[in-house]
Amino acid sequence: MAAASAIPSPLLEQPQTQTQTQTQTKSDDPKITIQQILDIVNNLHTTVNKSQDADGASTIRTARSAGLELAHATLTPVLDKLLSLQVPDKKSEGREDHHISMLQRNLRLLKEDVVKLQDLRSEVAEEVWKHIRPLQGLLSKVVKGEEKSSKTQLTNGMKKDLEVINKKIFNLMCQVPLLPNKPKKHGVSDYDDGDKINTGKGIVFLHGIHATEEELKKRAVYRYVLRELEKLGGEEKIYLLSFAVFPENQEVNRTMLMYWWIGEGVLPVDGAESKVKRVLERFMEKQLIEPVENKRKVEANSYKMNPFVHSSLVLMAKEIGLFNMYNHPKTQPKMNKSKLYKVCLVEDSSSQQEAKAKRMPAVDIETVFNVSERFPDFAFKWFSEDQTSGRKNTFGKPVYKMLKVFYLGRWERTANRHIEVENPELMKYLKHMTKLKLLSFQGISRIERLDDAVCKLRELIILDLRACYNLEKLPDKIDSLKALIYLDITDCYMIDRMPKRLSWLDSLEVLKGFVVSDADEETVCTLVELRHLKKLRKLTITINKGGFTVLDLFMAIKDFVKLEKLKVAWGGINKRPENKDKDKNKDKDKVLGGGKKKEQKDKATAAGDNTKKQDGFLKRTASKFFDKEKVVEKPELPKTLKKLDLQCFPDAVLPEWLEPRRLVHLEKLYIKGGTELTGFGVLPENPTGCNVSVLRLKFLPKVKVEWRDLSKKYFPKLEFLEKYQCPQVSLCPTDGIGIWRKPE
């Protein structure tokens, strides 16, 4: 291939300094161009670190992480052939030059790969050449900053520029195959192209990449993923490899991952939420996963994986025997029990021979995870009393002590996949799963009640019943679940009462879907009784009880000593059918000329209803005068509360304890729906002590406030605002979808 003549680089407008790199010349050899970029980045690294070291910061040390064995098994002999790679040690995490070190590493990897890309070097050289001038300009800005100040730092804009370039370099590295070593095969035209995506029904990963194991292992991205995997600890290896289970290009929710890893026993319950977040952030830094961007969220809570990375992990998970469902690129995924006793249910698993209990010995199964099956109830039969493979306890009953995760429900956040249990009676076999930690029926229909067998699961930590639309009742003896920490019954619309013993779950920290109803308080658990749950951190409530006021709500929760997040939805109790009929009659009377009289009558009725609603408050107030020994209690927000989400707010004004000036501990406030709400109380003359930084306002047609007062007087520490269908919240500098973020 003829070499192109050198093209002089355009000179920068800024004057050159001694520390600035010399003017670059374009080369047709990508190795030279990459080295030029690497020189600039190294210079940038030195310049930034110079000022940080002067302030006492430790210099970056590089070392190769020692390889650790995976749980129960090692990878293949490929591990012994890993190339050396310098990476920042843990002490350098969080420093200003993190983006620089990442760019240095990826450039070194790319330089190793392009040595073998002679046939494509002109194309690669043209692509990487585009990044020369932006990096020269960035270096020039940093050098100028060093001349003006003794301390040099990367601005947020510079970091974003480095992230963009870093991502482009990484994507380029992933897309370049090792052509000189790729043999041409005859008769395999549909599967030998590493960049083609097979869109056949039921195939859920890039078969072009994974056509053969040998072809995949030759790719640069496979070697990169293998290197990064080797550096992780044993538990973190399992975290990363678990992404191999999900179909390609799917969004995976952080909470679901946390539940799964806790169930597997690889994630400690204490501090689980913060640790999962840190782990996923580390994976993002290494570009193994990427966040699913959503402008309406302050931060991402769902993640996706590059198809090349995903295919690499699929092969690695199969080689160590962790998961085994993708057997061949031309066949659909198949349900198998892996060497490490994990079973993944996939579409049409119920029709496989292995679905029969006699073909799937369950004595050593540790995990059953539903990836894409719509009729998963056959899995119950594996753990029935009839299975001779089950180990007998002293009473002659089979027990399955190995099983820790029984995830039959939906892991997706969307309801696109319909899941159905045809025979709910099979749930009686739950009583044999004595060591179960995670049980999920999320999104499964036709489950009307939980069998009492679930109360035998004394070691259950997570019970996920979200969106079980037919579920009508929780077990009365739910307090038998002594180890239960997470209980989610969100969107179980048929449940209208809570079992009395719910407040006896001493370990419960997260309760989602609690219902306040008109049921007899002697037979159901009331909201105020939840104060006995001393560890409760998160609570979501649906109020379906007439006359249950905002005052009643906050009087009930005032003694919750550890509550951090509260979500409350009034379930349309102010719009009952009888009230709608009254409104219709009212309009009719107005048309007939009797509107005025009828209107006066309605006002009197409304006043009576309001008096009735405030009856509890009046009684407490009256006690001040009739019983001097009693002190009138006042509602207040728990001091530990950081997030408050109010939906369908029923009143016209915020009570005193919810006015912004009183929110000295709250960080996030959401008010979503409130047709009568008019504002946030009396406008303070000076900025208040409100600590709210995230505010969401939706469907508030009567709330009237200007941006100046909203951001300067009511919420002076505001950093994020979402405004949707609030026509009288005016002059806000929001974007086209109603989002405003404080400029950095």
Q: Using DSSP, what is the number of strands?
A: 27
CATH class of the domain at 332-570: Alpha Beta
CATH topology of the domain at 332-570: Leucine-rich repeat, LRR (right-handed beta-alpha superhelix)
Radius of gyration of CA atoms, rounded to a whole number: 31 Å
The amount of helix comes to 25-40%
Distance between the termini: 49 Å
Note poorly predicted spans: 1-22, 56-95, 178-208, 573-601, 603-608, 616-631
Class computed from helices, strands and strand pairing: alpha/beta
Mean pLDDT: 78
> Looking across the biggest beta sheet, what order are the strands in?
8-9-12-14-16-17-18-19-20-21-22-23-25-27
Name the CATH architecture of the domain at 332-570. Answer: Alpha-Beta Horseshoe
Domain Disease resistance R13L4/SHOC-2-like LRR: 420-571
Pfam families: LRR_14 (PF23598)
Keywords: Coiled coil, Plant defense, Repeat
Biased composition (Low complexity): 16-25
Structure, explained:
- The chain is an alpha/beta fold and 744 residues long.
- Among the domains are: 18-60 and 95-176; 332-570, Ribonuclease Inhibitor (Leucine-rich repeat, LRR (right-handed beta-alpha superhelix), Alpha-Beta Horseshoe); 643-741.
- The protein has a 14-stranded mixed beta sheet, covered by helices on one side.
- Strand 19, helix 13 and strand 20 (565-570) form a beta-alpha-beta unit.
- Residues 1-22, 56-95, 178-208, 573-601, 603-608 and 616-631 have low confidence and may be disordered.
